[in-house]
Write a structure and sequence with these properties.
Helix content is 49%, strand content 13%. With 226 residues, the protein is of the alpha/beta class. It has a single domain, classed as Rossmann fold (3-Layer(aba) Sandwich). A 3-stranded parallel sheet has the order 1-3-2, sandwiched between helices. α5 packs parallel to α6. It is globular, with a radius of gyration of 17 Å. The termini are close together. The protein binds BIS(adenosine)-5'-pentaphosphate and magnesium ion.
Amino acid sequence: MESKQAQSRFIVLLGAPGAGKGTQAAYLEEVLGIPHVSSGDLFRENLRNETGLGKLARSYMDKGELVPDEVTIAMVKERLARPDCAGGAVLDGFPRTIAQAQALDEILAETGRRVGIVPYIKVPDDVLLARLAGRWTCRQCEAVYHELFNPPKIAGKCDVCGGELYQRADDTPETQRRRIEVYFQQTTPLIEYYRDRGLLVEIDGAQSIERVQADLLAAIQSGSQS
Ligand code: AP5
Ligand code: MG
C-alpha cells in the first residue's frame, strides 16, 4: 500500500509552452509537499551560474529548440537522485521526447519507482501566445506571474521572495512561435505514450488558475486511490 502511494507521487505535467505547467507545479509542490523539478528552471539556473551546461543550453533555448536528450537526461537524473525526490516529484517540462520518457521510466525503475499520473494541461493556441506575452518571472526563485491574469502585489517584485521580475529571453514572439512548433513536433507524441500506459488525464487548462488547480488536485487524489 505504502509503495503504491510513493510510486504515484511522480507526477509528469504535460502541456504546451504557456499552458501553465510552472504555475501549477509550484502549487502542487506546496500542497503535496514534493519538489517541483523543472528542466527549464534547471537550465536557467545553469545560465545564471555560467556553467558549461548553461552555455550549451543557451544556444538551443534562445532559438526555441530542444536541448539534446543526452545532456537533458543526465541533468534531470542527477536532480532526481537527490534525497528530496525520494518520495516523488512534480516534473515540469521533462520528459519532452519519447527518448526522455523512456529514460525517465528507466531512471525510476532503478529504484523500484514509476510515473504515477500524467496530467495533460490542454490550452488553445491563441490563449498560449497571450499568456507568454504577459509573463513575468522571478530572477531568484522562478515564480511565475502574468501582468493581467496573475499580477504580483507590487509591480516588478516577486510576492514569494521579493526578487526582481524579468521577461524571459525566449519569450520574444518569434521564439514563442518556434517553441510551440517544436512542442507539436517533438512532445505531443508523449500524449499517446502515456495514454497507452493508462496514465494520462486531460485537464482543461483554459480555465482560471484556481479552477485548473482544483481539477488537477482532484485528478491526482483520485489517481492515487485507484
Ligand atoms: P521551459 O522553461 O520548460 O518552457 P516551456 O515548456 O516553453 O513552458 P513555459 O515555461 O513557457 O510555460 P508553462 O507551461 O510553464 O507556463 P507558465 O506556468 O509559465 O523550457 C524552456 C526551454 O528550455 C525549451 O524551449 C528548451 O530549449 C529547454 N528545455 C527545457 N526542458 C527541456 C527538455 N526536457 N528537453 C530539451 N530541452 C528542454 O504560464 C504561462 C503564463 O500564463 C504565466 O504568465 C502565467 O501567470 C499565466 N497563466 C498560467 N495559467 C494560467 C491560467 N489558467 N489562466 C491565465 N493565465 C495563466
Ligand atoms: Mg514553465
